[in-house]
Write a structure and sequence with these properties.
The chain is of the alpha+beta class. Helix content is 32%, strand content 20%. β14 (296-303) and β15 (306-313) form a beta hairpin.
């Protein structure tokens, strides 16, 4: 990250254009492309926990599609065409844990425009509204509040639908929400670069005046994550193997902070945590409560003469669940004790132990962690056999899964037995911290560990759920990286011929264990099903432009019933 990017946010005027960026790309060789395809096919066939479900539910066969792509590589005219084909094959799985990560220089970069949009509802009317604009980048009257009507000559809703098809969202709500989130910011770690070098936006002001403006796509580096570590991961919590995280959602969150709230980035770069990130101002009747957790913000509010707490958790991504939970417990004790709103909208997940252990703060009864199961393949059996206490280099003890995986080689069972990843004793050693009623706010961008948190909240009857969309992101898995799998299987015959590092810095992520719900949701899979809210609040224009005022009012009314 350059000094300008680190302390002043993104410099739009001096950022590289997409056309210049693409002109400097060195293409992969045909051999390199086939190596990537072969690795992807092997990882999916050997380790992908949801493969039988995806084949059955959607009629897709990603392994066959990859083999077909390998046979037609010479017919692809452009380098970006190859990456776009791979991205689309993975997108058809509707699983953001299982993705192809583009090589250098795409990885770590984002294609962006100098504004952000959201969907505003007024009855049956839906509008695509500009919510943030980088100062000095677009001429008046283009500003927050204008309505986008067309995108390069295409009606804007059709443009959103087209992008939604490549986002990999698990359900319709998630696909559309992800398309809106990535409409003007495309992290190229998982999305191919835009096809167009520039866009022509047609928009309408609040007074009905119609205008158009033309803007080039620009390229910049993604800022580094500033909040994941309290201190280094303890051996009992191997961070990389116990993550349940939507990497692209996390990247979008960081880019928005750099583009539209550089003062927050400045403070965090200097080690000064800032709860307020500049995207959603607190309700005007709320008082902010300081916290050391940069991914969390909190307020005290008042409704009809009674106080309530408002807790926004933007991520569960931490290398130190104990430190995260200790800080969270202290924060909860400083909030009003007779009513709490927990807001996990757009939370991309993180460390499962942090999310599941936090649920105990709101329950007098023991919280059960979700259970996880492997696809019953020989490769996963070998993987678990390599990670037992007998191995001094063990990253995680996987011995519990070995008997059922071994038995499945004879019985033909599809999945292993399911066991929790989060130690139930660690949850039960905790205690209820917050005594009052709790309400949870969700969105279709709440994913992975956040999905697991929401499922636990529902399955243990901790309170009502209010969603701004009809479902959550519906990501129910623990994801691993290709290089992790190869390193754990080192020396096994299954790895013969597989490179430990893919060409050009490309990578693969795969959902290696799928989540099975417990308690009231006993036995239900979380993937694609997600959690439907008890009530839905469609975001209004006031929510988008004035700090969620209607949403918070709706939430408090439910809380006080």
């Amino acid at each position: 990250m350059s000094e300008t990017e680190a302390f002043n946010g993104i410099d739009w005027h001096n950022a590289q254009t997409l056309s210049a960026f693409l002109a400097g790309i060195s293409p992969l060789s045909l051999i390199d492309k086939r190596t990537i395809i072969d690795a992807a096919a092997s990882v999916l066939a050997d380790h992908y926990a949801h493969l039988p479900h995806k084949r059955s539910a959607h009629g897709v066969d990603p392994v066959a599609r990859l083999r077909a792509l390998a046979r037609s590589l010479e017919d692809l005219a452009t380098e970006t065409g190859f990456h776009a084909e791979l991205v689309q094959i993975f997108a058809e799985l509707r699983d953001l844990h299982t993705v192809y990560t583009l090589p250098t220089p795409f990885a770590g970069m984002v294609a962006f425009l100098p504004f952000q949009v959201g969907i505003a509802h007024a009855g049956d009317l839906r509008q695509v509204i500009v919510t943030h604009v980088m100062p000095g980048c677009v001429h008046a009257p283009f500003a927050a509040g204008v309505e986008i009507t067309a995108w390069n000559g295409i009606p804007v809703w059709r443009a959103i639908e087209k992008l939604a098809a490549s986002t990999g969202g698990a359900n319709r709500a998630a696909s559309q929400a992800r398309a809106v989130a990535a409409f003007t910011q495309r992290p190229m770690m998982r999305l191919a670069p835009p096809d167009e070098m520039h866009i022509e936006v047609e928009y309408q002001t609040e007074t009905g005046e119609r205008h158009r403006t033309r803007l080039d796509w620009k390229i910049c580096k993604l800022v580094a994550d500033t909040h994941v570590a309290h201190k280094p991961a303890a051996p009992a919590h191997p961070h990389c193997l116990t993550l349940a995280l939507d990497d692209m959602g996390d990247a979008l969150r960081r880019h928005r902070k750099s583009a539209f709230a550089p003062h927050v980035l400045h403070a965090e770069t200097h080690g000064v945590p800032v709860a307020h990130d500049g995207f959603h101002d607190a309700h005007p009747h709320e008082e902010e409560v300081p916290t050391r957790l940069s991914q969390v913000r909190a307020w005290k509010g008042m409704f009809e003469g009674r106080p309530f707490g408002h807790l926004r958790i933007r991520s569960f991504n931490t290398r130190d669940p104990d430190g995260f939970l200790d800080d969270m417990a202290m924060l909860l004790e400083r909030l009003p004790q007779d009513g709490l709103i927990i807001d996990v909208r757009d939370n991309p997940g993180g460390l499962m132990a942090a999310a599941e252990r936090m649920l105990q703060f709101f329950s007098d009864r023991p919280i059960q962690p979700v259970r996880m199961e492997f696809l019953a393949t020989e490769a996963n059996l070998r993987l678990c056999q390599s990670q037992t206490p007998a191995n001094p280099n063990m990253a995680e003890n996987l011995s519990r899964w070995i008997p059922s995986l071994a038995r499945a080689q004879q019985t033909g069972s599809v999945w292993s037995n399911a066991y929790p990843m989060t130690d139930p004793n660690e949850i039960r050693n905790g205690e209820r911290i917050y005594p009052g009623p709790v309400l949870l706010i969700t969105s279709a961008l709440s994913y992975s560990a956040a999905d697991i948190f929401i499922a636990g909240f529902r399955d243990h009857h901790l309170g009502k759920i209010l969603g701004v969309h009809a479902n959550t992101g519906a990501g129910g898995a623990n994801r691993w990286i290709y290089s992790d799998i190869l390193s754990l299987l080192k020396g096994e015959r299954l790895t013969v011929g597989r490179p430990s590092v893919l060409p050009g810095g490309a990578d693969l992520r795969v959902a290696i264990r799928r989540a099975v719900r417990v308690a009231a949701g006993e036995g239900m899979e979380l993937e694609e099903s997600g959690i439907e809210p008890d009530e839905i609040h469609r975001l209004t224009r006031a929510d988008l432009l004035e700090g969620d005022v209607d949403l918070i009012a709706h939430a408090v009314r439910i809380l006080r019933v």
